[in-house]
Design goal:
5-stranded antiparallel sheet; 5 strands; globular
Length: 522
């Protein structure tokens, strides 16, 4: 049995890595950005309300969510700091008002001390927050600053598990704090082209001809043996780490490609690697995948089905594609359009966020319990009961019953042990926990809706929470859409009928018992 107090370092460490891993499943990933980014988003949102881009209700929802989170976040500081923050957090915050300036100054102060306060808070085993909250706060803050998740994952993996002697997490967080308060660096990033249109269409800033690209690569220690290029673009990128700089350079490159297409200037083809001066090897440029996984299409063998009547979901899937792999702007606009098309009502477009959140909350227990059921397959006490199961629902039920009966489950990884603790907490109080899950998911989807409005109605393509929104909301959208697809293809339930069932399930769960968590949706 896991002991939260004695096993706190391992539980916290593995959750940190879960949150930063590129292959984390949606039910183990981060669902929202951190506190500081939320405060910056409120400041930005107040300006958008004044210009008519966002409604006061939209800003008030964000303020309310942030106010609920702040008291439990030790990064805020002591009770006096919290009181000052609460006084400045007004649902109808006016730009350049007294409260606005106060919130701006408080946000800057919190950002400068955030990780240092967390480092201090986790020293004392008697008073430190639980592993889940600690890991979430630290990971969110680091990612919101602009660090690349892969870079942070490697950086923390070495310090948490390979550095000798093993250091306490408080020391590692203190080291991360020093990085966080340092100024971002300037990186020289090279991307090269396999094909680029005729020079009469011009050349992008930082353009180098093919011989100059080869010279730059050789001068920075990179091999050119297999590099076949017709020129390249050298960019100076301000970023937190080299991988983040390469990502930013590719984003600029994709913007140029989009401009060339709409200008009918011809197709641009670039090499699938980026070189950063000072690094030992290049970074692969991979196809974006933001974790929008609708597995129901695979389960029901409908990925390539074309001999059936078209449904309302078909257009939604087409709109989801940009959310999976396109530019941030296109991804957010199209992603929200898919949600709105299925779950909105004429007088309440933003309510689609809450409806999708109920689907995610109802999906969470079975998703996590199913994953755990495979992790305990080596446990002799459960092997016989799981051996005869033919579907995920039954596997989830077997595991839920084992947890409710307080059986000692044998789990090999700390990630699974942490998940088991979350399921124990859920099954001991399903109504309260699922209400929290629904609220977290709703906050994520409402952020997606706000970003969509900032883009489409305000022309704002560099909002402070734009990339954090994509990172956190996209996998949840996939999870919710998966349940809508399953309900339509298997139970013949429309999207709004499915959302209605989810809402009823969350309201009545307290009367049905904990095992009913696995049957909240068809």
């Amino acid at each position: 049995m896991v002991d939260v107090v004695n096993d706190w370092p391992d539980l916290t460490a593995v959750r940190l890595l879960d949150f930063l891993a590129s292959d984390s499943l949606w039910h183990r990933a981060l669902w929202n950005p951190g506190l500081v980014l939320a405060l910056q988003e409120i400041l930005e949102g107040s300006e958008a309300v004044r210009s008519g881009v966002l409604s006061e209700e939209s800003l008030g929802s964000l303020v309310g969510t942030t106010m609920r989170a702040a008291p439990d976040d030790v990064g805020v500081g002591d009770r006096h700091n919290l009181k000052a923050l609460q006084q400045a957090l007004q649902p109808k915050l006016r730009p350049k008002s007294l409260d606005y300036h106060a919130l701006e100054q408080i946000t800057q102060e919190i950002q400068g001390r955030y990780l240092a306060r967390w480092a201090e808070a986790i020293v004392n085993p008697a008073t430190r927050p639980n592993p889940e909250r600690t890991a979430r706060a630290i990971a969110c803050h680091a990612l919101d600053l602009g660090y690349n998740a892969e870079y942070l994952h490697r950086w923390l993996t070495y310090r948490l598990f390979h550095q000798v002697p093993r250091r306490p997490l408080s020391e590692i967080v203190r080291e991360l704090h020093e990085f966080a308060i340092a100024q971002p660096r300037t990186f020289d990033v090279m991307v090269a082209f396999e094909y680029i249109p005729h020079p009469r269409f011009g050349r992008p800033k930082g353009w180098l001809e093919a011989p100059d690209v080869s010279s730059w690569l050789c001068g920075n220690g990179f091999s050119t043996a297999v590099v076949r290029q017709q020129g390249g673009m050298l960019q100076q990128i301000i970023a937190r780490d080299a991988r983040a700089a390469a990502d930013a350079a590719v984003e600029i490159l994709e913007n140029l490609i989009a401009r060339a297409r709409v200008a009918a200037a011809g197709e641009i083809v670039y090499l699938r690697q980026a070189w950063v001066a000072g690094e030992k090897s290049s970074f692969p440029i991979l196809q974006h995948s933001r974790g929008v996984n609708v597995r129901a299409l695979v389960r029901e063998n409908l990925v390539y089905a074309s001999d059936r009547p078209e449904t309302e979901l078909d257009a939604a899937f087409e709109l989801l594609a940009p959310l999976q792999s396109s530019s941030p702007i296109a991804g957010i606009a199209a992603g929200w359009a898919a949600i709105e098309a299925l779950l909105s009502e004429p007088s309440d477009r933003g309510g689609a966020a809450d409806r999708l959140a109920t689907l995610v909350a109802c999906s969470w227990p079975r998703a996590e319990l199913t994953k755990l059921s495979y992790a305990v397959s080596k446990d002799a006490t459960l092997t016989a009961r799981l051996a005869g199961t033919t579907d995920n629902r039954t596997r989830a039920k077997v595991l839920a019953e084992a947890i409710v009966n307080n059986e000692n489950l044998v789990l090999d990884t700390w990630s699974d042990k942490a998940a088991c603790l979350r399921m124990r907490h859920l099954l001991s109080n399903p109504a309260s926990v699922l209400a929290d899950v629904q609220q977290y998911a709703s906050s994520s989807f409402r952020r997606l809706y706000r970003q969509r409005n900032l883009i489409l109605h305000g022309g704002k393509t560099n909002a402070v929470a734009l990339r954090a929104c994509l990172r956190t909301a996209a996998p949840l959208v996939g999870a919710g859409m998966d349940r809508l697809a399953h309900a339509l293809y298997v139970a013949r339930l429309s999207p709004l009928a499915t959302a209605a069932q989810a809402r009823i399930s969350l309201i009545t769960i307290a009367a049905k018992g904990p095992i009913s968590c696995i049957d909240l949706l068809p």
